[in-house]
Amino acid sequence: MTGFSTRQIQAGYVPATPQNSAVPPIYQTAAYEFGSLAEAADLFALRTAGNLYSRNASPTQQVLEERVAALEGGVSAVAVASGQAAVAVTLLALVGRGGHIVAATQLYGGTVDLLQETFDDFGIPVTFVDQDDTEAWRAAIRPETRVLFAESIANPIAQVLDIRAVADIAHAAGVPLVIDNTVGTPYLVRPGEHGADFVVHSATKFLSGHGTSLGGVVVDLGTFDAGREPARWPHFTEPYARVGDFTLWERFGIGQAFAALVKSKYVHDLGPSLSPFNAWQILQGIETLDLRVSRQSATALALARHLQQHPAVARVHHPGLEGTPWHALAERYLPRGGPSVFSFDLAVPRGADTHASVARVIDALRVIRLVANIGDARSLVNHPASMTHSHLTAAQREAAGISPTTIRLSAGLEDAADLIADLDRALALT
Ligand SMILES: *Cc1c(COP(=O)(O)O)cnc(C)c1O
């Protein structure tokens, strides 16, 4: 296999289209014309693969799928309309009917909403555990558990997961581990190398890097084997009634059956399809992923070090800093650099109004922008307690390490000196 930088520019595309376009074209069409009725029938029955209707896939999307699979070291991938959709269809496809999920407490706010409200409405039980507590992961597993879920680097506190420890617990229970690698990025960490079975991304963030387009991807790393315990996974191992009398596991097998189920059932039925234009935008972003992430990672560490010695800052949550709780895990899992999304807690003077102090600082920033996004070329801040994590209870925020004074930073590609000057000017107002 070629190196990471070559893969991020070339994987999944051979310019053998009739027009020989050097860059993957945008196939902006809702549907595809069949050569004959027999050809159409074969496509609908999953006997052959090909272009059918853009809810299922477009060729632009397929290039993106192959490219992200290549970057994560996976076998196949499915791209969908958003990271939220990627998490939802992945977990739905694994839990099947009657399954139970064990998930980390330290998750993106939108994922917490999905798991504890919408999945609860659907009757899908979820147990949340502190991701650093291996005993809690083990104790939460039930006979009907079908998947363990966590983020490689949690947002906004940048806790680093011991992926290998959680993967071993999942595999001892005979279930796969799904890792949300949005903040990690495949440049900094490839969860498949540490035992994860599926990786999901909000492609909106670092894969795009330009903040123009929503998208999500799930990669099958080719290690989940439903055939080993077929009774546990009837939706893979019993006849796939909607199409024919074959089973998905027989027809597609390890590494491919999951994508076939996600596309032909969950994306087909629920409809969170990726537009060809957004797939193309995300491909443009991926071409510079390693350059951007290495620069953002270095900038973030410089900002973290600066904030750590600033009198207006009580605490910096960045695992690259010596003496912080996740530093040893960062050294083990992130040898190429730490996350560029991290947080710090303001030191609010005794007796001062906490929220007013936080607001003064955030509203004074000029170079760093107040935007609910991460992984953008622009440096962005967010106040988790009143924005991305406002739906959580105070106790849930505390369990995730978020305080009312926590400010999240996503380091962009501007000059680090300008970002530091901007922070210093704003912090003088606490
Ligand atoms: C943003 C984000 C999501 C959701 O992705 P969208 O593309 O916004 O739907 C999921 N997980 C993490 C870690 C995220 O940061």
UniProtKB/TrEMBL annotation:
GO terms for molecular function: cysteine synthase activity; methionine gamma-lyase activity; O-acetylhomoserine aminocarboxypropyltransferase activity; pyridoxal phosphate binding. Pfam families: Cys_Met_Meta_PP (PF01053). It comes from Microbacterium foliorum. This is Methionine gamma-lyase. It is an enzyme of class 4 (lyase). Keywords: Lyase, Pyridoxal phosphate, Transferase. Its cofactor is pyridoxal 5'-phosphate. SUPFAM superfamilies: PLP-dependent transferases. The gene is mdeA_1.
